[in-house]
Amino acid sequence: MTRRRSNSNHNATRVRDSVAAALIDQQERHTMKIAVINFSGNVGKSTVARHLLAPRLDGAEVIAIESINSDDREKSGALRGAQFDELQEQMMMLNNVVVDVGASNVEDFISLMQRYDGSHEDFDRFVVPTVPVTKQQVDTIATLDELRDLGVPPERIRLLFNTVDTKSDLRKAFTRIFDHYERKGGFVLNSEAVIYENPIFEKIKPFDKSIIEIRDDPTDYVAWNAKAMEEGAPDSQRAYIRQMVALKRLANRAASELDAVFKMLVH
Ligand SMILES: Nc1ncnc2c1ncn2[C@@H]1O[C@H](COP(=O)(O)OP(=O)(O)OP(=O)(O)O)[C@@H](O)[C@H]1O
Ligand SMILES: [Mg+2]
Questions:
Q1: Same domain, 161 and 92
Q2: Which of 106, 120, 206, 253 has the fewest CB atoms within 10 Å of its CB?
């Protein structure tokens, strides 16, 4: 009897320890399933998925909802149950995943999460980027309300201020959102979860690389530029090198800013 009890105590301790270890492991390795969502277009969902979230989650894939079963989509134009099934299956096979819910699919996506009871629990986070434009703030509030009504716990819903002007007052630029938060809550508003307006997002587009990849590119472009000048390299090559010098400098700073924002969103 005593022995059995001590065994079960021992087992309980082991289970508790392994759960704790898994949690620590999860935090350290950033095992996370994240949906990036907003009824509005142009708030930076794809940018956030691609440059902020996926590169900081071990082996994470970005699943763009638009891309699922595009053949069927062409026929219906709507996100259907079958595609949602496929998404859920894909998510169960992956440790880290970022789902970029295109604006045209958000409504369907939310009603499917309603239909498939509990499916929102597959997501550790709903990251909701927003920008100062009034229409986008109004849509952001609608998105936050929908997620709350779906039963998503407030701590899983993370607002992210995007394209913020460094000189602006955040409270003033996002008055509607702050007011809504104070009146109704239901999500996490962190005044430091901010991505500033940054030309890097435009400049990086032709490269098909994340900001982290550009930062970690070991090439010494400054030295290469000097060598290219010395050797009279073609203009196009020298222009490319100059572009990379500028991009890497922007990437260094932007990557560390994004590191800090990432921590705020996942912890
Ligand atoms: N912090 C930023 N600074 C400067 N430009 C940005 C920033 N964030 C996003 N952008 C730019 O804003 C535009 C819209 O961003 P993005 O495509 O990520 O939005 P989206 O929400 O995915 O839009 P859609 O709903 O159409 O898919 C892009 O050109 C992107 O480069
Ligand atoms: Mg997009």
A1: yes
A2: 206
Domain hosting 207: range is 199-260
Per-residue pLDDT tens digits for 158-189: 999 999 999 999 999 999 999 999 999 999 99
Looking at the CA of 129, which ligand is closest?
Answer: 1
Q: What is the total count of domains within the chain?
A: 2
Q: Alpha carbon of 31 to those of 53, 115, 142, 194, 231: distances in Å? A: 11, 26, 28, 22, 48
- Global pTM value: 0.86
Total residues found in the chain within this entry: 267
For residue 197 and ligand 1, the question of a CB distance below 6 A is answered with: yes
Is residue 198 within 6 Å of ligand 1 at its C-beta?
yes
Task: Count Cβ neighbours within 10 Å for each residue of 248-262 and write b for 16 or more, e otherwise.
Answer: bebbeebbebbeebb
Identify whether 45 is part of a domain: yes
201: Cβ below 6 Å to ligand 1? yes
Alpha carbon nearest to ligand 1 atom 3, residue: 197
